Amino acid sequence: MALLRRKKKVVEEVEAPTPPPASLPDPPRTGEDGMRVMEDHRDYLLGLVEPLPYFGMSLLDAHGLTLCEDIRSETDLPAFDNSQMDGYAVRAEDIAAASQGEPLSLTVAGHVAAGDDGTEELAQGKAIKVMTGAPIPPGANAVVPLEFTDGGDEEVKVYEPVAPGEYVRVRGSDIHDGDQLMSRGQRLDARTIGLLAAAGIDKVLARPRPRVVVVSTGAELVDPGRPLERPGQIHDANSFMIAAAVKAEGCQVWRVQVASDEPEAVREAITDQLIRADLVITTGGVSKGDHDVVKQVMPSLGTCDFAEVAMQPGKPQGFGLIGEDRVPMIMLPGNPVSAYVSFQCFVRPVIRKLMGVEPLNHHPVRCVAGSVMRSAKGKLQFGRAIVREDNGRRLVDLVGGHSSHLLGDLAACNALVLLGEDTEVVNAGERVMVWMLDND
Ligand code: AMP
Ligand code: MG
Q1: What number is the average pLDDT over the span 156-169?
Q2: How far apart are CA 168 and CA 78, in angstroms?
Q3: Could you say which of 49, 92, 144, 287 would form a disulfide bridge with 316 (CB–CB 3.0 to 4.6 Å)?
Q4: Is residue 5 predicted with pLDDT exceeding 60?
Q5: Would the pLDDT of 312 be above 90?
Q6: Which residues have their alpha-adjacent CB atom under 5 A from ion ligand 2?
Q7: Those residues with Cβ within 8 angstroms of residue 14's Cβ, 6 or more apart along the chain or in another chain
Q8: Taking Cα atoms as reference points, which of 310, 415, 412, 314 lies closest to residue 368?
Q9: CA-CA distance, 353 to 370, in Å (whole number)?
Q10: CATH for 82-169, among 2.170.190.11, 3.90.79.10, 2.30.30.280, 3.65.10.10?
Q11: Dihedral (CA of 418, 424, 425, 430) sign
């Protein structure tokens, strides 16, 4: 009955969505160079999106999602005393004198397997054969493992005594009725899902997986697997890379390619996607070139913000609330490394806000520079780097150069080194902060 009561509550409790703001609030102030500080831009975007409303969903569907309720157990676990081993349920005092030299014989009065109701009472001087997980018969207080006996079915010889309580998994020894199993804000992983299932819970209140559409734009793009038919074409890396990174955050993702820089083609493709998206991410077409079509087109579809952020790579950034439903859209630059670094700075926190996952932002980790690192003043520089353990210290070395087309180095790195606006040189042995990239 208790479980049914819970289910009813779960189905009824649905959060009302918060309406998005009608227009974009004032953007953060820029420095003398006209650029925004990375954290200011990120916080600005975070202020423009709301967590997705939660609802009751089945346990497995909630894997990786954030729980929006506290859950208490409505049962003891184990729910009944049961056997930890295949063996014989006994009264420990009946076999206290058993030894290898002088085994004790007991009549086997019954057999109980896991799943049997196990109500048969154990009489003094007898044994009941039990399998692992079988209920302990009333009257028994211990289990003699099969290995301590001759394994007999009618009569059993016991060669070793056991203490009262031995090899018995006592009711409530894992979880007590009323214990808190999970708290609001916790992410459901395989282990917590296992715990809830064991406690008989099949539905939870959680925020859904955001539906994210990743759109790459550019007349030069060709899908991998297809030949490059004319000079100037390239294979589309971004939509795959960003879609994979989005998926690794736990979202449902669709990848769309617009191999065009024609305003009408981009407008149409984006408009088509709005219906199924909680978030749209585009790459390409937001800098100052002649064909930066995303920047040209998007203001006609919603309220937009285009900015230069004092970071390298990833300077040009765009954001919009698009279409009737004001779907959030993050417009990333086209260079693959710029797109990826921008993902880490802006998209990942926004996705985490939609999902209600804390912390929103990367937790910087302190490392020791393995060699000298140089950075342009006035910009936050993200260096691709490899972090390794070295005698209990975390040593970090840059891989490759600063250019934002270097996908080989990006693929080889496991961290981003953050070299701040005021940093020009970091010498070997000095401390630097990094973001580890071990989750996608
Ligand atoms: P854009 O931001 O559109 O000016 O593009 C900047 C650079 O990134 C150009 O060299 C583009 O060819 C490249 N680029 C744009 N989109 C992609 C993509 N989806 N995959 C790989 N490279 C891209
Ligand atoms: Mg382009």
Answers
A1: 98
A2: 11
A3: 287
A4: no
A5: yes
A6: 218, 284-285, 334
A7: 53, 54, 55, 56
A8: 415
A9: 35
A10: 2.170.190.11
A11: negative
Ligand nearest to the CA of 342: 1
| Rounded Cα gap, residues 129 and 106, in angstroms | 11
Q: Closest ligand to 315 CA?
A: 1
pLDDT digits (tens, 9 = 90+) for 16-39: 665 555 689 999 999 999 999 999
Dist CA 32 CA 39 (whole Å): 17
Q: How much distance in Å is there from the Cα of 299 to the middle of ligand 1?
A: 21
Q: How far is CA 337 from CA 10, 171, 307, in A?
A: 43, 56, 18
Q: 147: which 2 tokens? A: 């290995």
> What is the pLDDT at residue 414?
97
Single-letter residue type at 293: V
CB–CB of 390/358 below 8 Å? no
CA of 46 to the centre of ligand 2 (A): 26
Tell me what percent of the residues of the chain surpass a pLDDT of 70.
95
Distance 336 CA to ligand 1 centre (A): 7
Among the four given CATH numbers 3.40.190.10, 3.30.200.20, 3.20.20.140, 3.40.980.10, the one describing domain 16-53+208-355: 3.40.980.10
- Ligand 2 centroid–CA 292 distance in Å is 6
Ligand closest to the CA atom of residue 221 = 1
Single-letter residue type at 337: V
When pLDDT is averaged across residues 259-269 and rounded to a whole number, the result is 96
All residues at 6 or more sequence positions from 227 whose CB lies less than 8 Å from its CB, including other chains? none
Nearest C-alpha to atom 3 of ligand 1 is from which residue? Answer: 284
> In whole angstroms, what is the distance from residue 305 CA to residue 295 CA?
9
The residues spanned by each domain of the chain are 16-53+208-355, 82-169, 365-436
Band of the pLDDT at 4, cuts 50, 70, 90?
A: very low
